[in-house]
# Entry
Amino acid sequence: MKVTVNGEPLEIEQPISVQELLVVAKAEQPEYVTVQLNGEFVDHAGFASTTVKDGDTVEFLYFMGGGAR
# Structure
């Protein structure tokens, strides 16, 4: 099945959880990532129970802090 992760196509064998996708897609710093699945944010507590299926679009978002001088 095909999913899109951060704008790139990814082939996976079967539906998997968001938590498993973080490993398969080699997400950087998975403990700090925010995940958007088909335009909806997924709560960290739901990573293990939220399933990614054929045709889904997933975005891994990293928020950076910063400030003015």
About this structure: The longest helix spans residues 18-24. The helical segments are 18-24. Strands lie at 2-5, 8-11, 16-17, 34-37, 40-42, 51-52, 57-61. The chain has one domain: 2-61.
